[in-house]
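Re: weekly structure request thread

Next one in the queue (1016 aa):
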Amino acid sequence: MNLKTTVNRAAGIRQALVGAFMILFCVAMSSAQSVKGTVTADGQPLPGATVVVKGTTTGTSTDFDGNYTINADANSTLVFSYVGYASKEVVVGSQTEINVELEADNALDEVVVIGYGTQRKSDLTGSVSSVSAEDLTVVPVARVDQALQGRATGVQVTQVSGAPGAGTVIRVRGGNSITGSNEPLWVIDGIVVGTNFNLNNINSNDIQSIEILKDASSIAIYGSRGANGVVLVTTKSGRGAGTGKPQVSVNVYTSSQMVPELPHMLTQEEQIEYTNEDATFRNTAIPFPNDPSTYPDNDWFDLIMGTSPIYSADVSISGSTDNLNYYNSISYFNQDGIVKSSGLERFIFRSNLDYTLSDKLKAGFRVNYSRINQDNGVVGFGNAFGTLRTQPIFNDDGTYNGFNDVIGAPFNNPLAAIELNTNETFTNNLLATAYLEYSPVKNLVIRSTFSPEFNNIKQNRFNSSQLPGLLATDVPDGGEASVRSVASTGWNNENTIQYTTDFNEDHSLVALAGASFQKVSVETAIARAFGITSDATGFNNLGFSDPARANIESDYDGFQIASFFGRINYTFKDKYLLTLVGRTDGSSRFAPGNKYEFYPSIAGAWKVSEEPFMQNQNVFQDLKLRASWGKSGNQAIEAYRTLGLLTEANTTLGGTELPGLTIGRPANPNLQWETTSSYDIALEASLFGGKIFTEFNYYYKKTNDLLLDVTIPRQTGFTSQLQNVGSLENKGWELMVNSTNINKGDFTWGSTVTLSSNENKILDLGGAEFIDVTVDEILGSDNTRLIVGESVPTFTGARYLGTWKSQAEIDASGFTGPATVGGARFEDINGDGIISTEDYVVAGDPTPDLIFGVENNFSYKNWDLSFYFQGTVGNEVFNLLMRNNYFARGEATKFGDIADRWIQGVNETSDIPRAGTDTVGGIPPNTEYIEDGSHLRLRSVRLAYNVPVDSWGLNGVKNATIYFSGSNLLLLSSTRLIDPEASRFGRTGLGNIAQGYLSGQYPNPRILTLGLNVTF
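Done, posted below.
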């Protein structure tokens, strides 16, 4: 074969190979397809994420909204990645749209929501705690705030009542005010809804994430509204839900609520013995002369309480197209309370929509409508504490008993009240927002939102004329009814402009400016009727009553706020971060000259792990040091408090009494904002390849210009005036540790520990050493004080020394007040022979030394197990039932430890007072009322099975989970009333400062739940 032939054959082979290659290339190109979608993280778009066809150099990046487009073969695999997040691979197949959500591989790179924007956690200069949707739905709750308990450091969430729909008390790094609210500001999808928004209006399954802003740097953007912290709620959108057909999610569960452990009380026989002993001591007739077995033995706790169900179901439909993201849901919730006549029924509809009108223009809305029907309960848990077990339920003729023979007075029969009385509330709430977002040039975004809210509440109350307590009197008073209507309307307008730029490679700047306007109006009308002789119409016709006793009231309240704000986030070499924030607020609640206030803040952070000297170590994956300072405010007063108050004052003219008005309180146009200055320093670290993430914060806050009622000269015609005087401080630390303990094969184990400590102290009360606070009309005003140098509030009382053991001991003591052997003995500190407020000591306070939460999560193949403990250490509670159920006469039930009381000739060494001791002398508030409020609660346990839908052949089902959970299954506490979290005064009014007072509140039930979550 010559050279020419060889060359020709080689050329032919080359041409054949080229032809074959071209054919294969054309085939490959013909099977390639355009794929698009959105990359998100933590429910937010992830700009700059990388999308690559695996094994090739073909790739792209997501735009500002997390969108991408790429050409890929049906057999190709797309790899989605972003710094700090675990990569995800998806086979293209026949899909033309692929949406993915990346999970954080490093806690510092999670995307969190901040005021008016989002940010990577690694870029934060302020203190922000995040709670994910998964944390919120691990154990079903009726209200979203209940799920926050123990989840965030520096945030104390107290479940003060177990009643259906009951709210919580939330303190972010302690309370800053005495007169004003200490509740955090709630912001839902950018809508400022205030501090008293009814969270029953929100379905927790609709929530994507919650961020709690805690330090000055993060809350300063909310100015006068943020001193008590800010809770940002972000609801779900259609991003990441998939394309093509909509994604449908169904969540259903049913729960059984069980009565928890109840206080230990005397048995019927022990109570009879105590009551007779008390009567003997007082020289009155013995109420129970016969054998105890001849008298009723009614467990009133059991009679008014019982196991009750919860039913919940919600369905959501979400998805996305080229230009549209949507999320729609409807939910139904029904809970019967464990105390009869209490319950909650709720319907919620939500629709979220985001639409891209063009490359530069976007629009969208959020609409949430709720309807709540609530049975408020006509009897309380406390009724059982005041009713003797010997009290008959029925008379001999079968009618309800209404007379107490022991005290010789009418008796409020709880079972009759449950059957005959009504107390119900109906609430309709519409919360919405619409926005328009325009980007005229690259990196510049102009956004405007308008958010209306409409709230209508109607409460109906009716107390029957047939109540046995009324019929037991010779002159029945008839029934009574009331109708209360509240209509509130409000709107919020937010306008922002944001510019983002990078320059000279090392510099990054995000500048935000905005203006906010809000107006709220509330109208209230109440009509009350008395002497209703028939139950036929109940509260539906108040005219069937005694017109001379009718009562009508109405009220109007409203306020307006105008705000202007700005923020600059600057980054140098992605190592040094600086944040500057300023906001000016103007409020109609203050008089001219004091309406406006400016609130600045500055914060900085240093990413230590980015420094060259940190590159050759294997301990810290990320390490960041940050610090902040700033001011925030609190309006702290109701509307019109700068003005004088008109009050009714009748007068006589010509011998005829005529209605009139007078000034009921003095005006004070000098009132101004309470201002809180705060400092924060923190260290964040991700260690050992991200297996451990920890965050430590230390903070100090000082509030000046406290609004307090100050005593003024009586010559003014008044006794007190609201003024800006005094100051207080909060300081403390927070520690959070999140760890992956085991991650091998099919088994993982992760833990989260949160520890928080806050010290609260009054620095000044306008020159006064202390101010007494009245929390109980019977106990008076001297059991609670605001004391300079102490916490808010402080429990005070005489020091209880046990019992007098002999008459000789009484004589030798020098005590000249009333005393008896076996009676209660108190320390006479000043030695004047009597017990007075001068002998009172600081007995405790409700502020915990430590708040903690511990969660463990286990996963093995398709099984998940989690359990969560939370509790407090070092707080005290004030047991208001001690007076009647420990020291008082035998006419009231008694705590079980009274069985070991002082009895002459039987138990004369006991330090528990004898029966009837309160008749010798008044029992002052004392240290025996104060109990240790430290406790440990097993908040939740959850066992879930993630159904392998593919192997089970469940076509069309994306995922399904069956779970069983328990809530409040264990409570370790030494308080006589069992649950130290309950609070008589709730979260408003006196409850703003008077936490830790127990008087038999609605207990938190034990709950067992079976549920199913399915996504199609």
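The radius of gyration is 34 Å. DSSP finds nine helices and 56 strands in the chain.
Next request, please.
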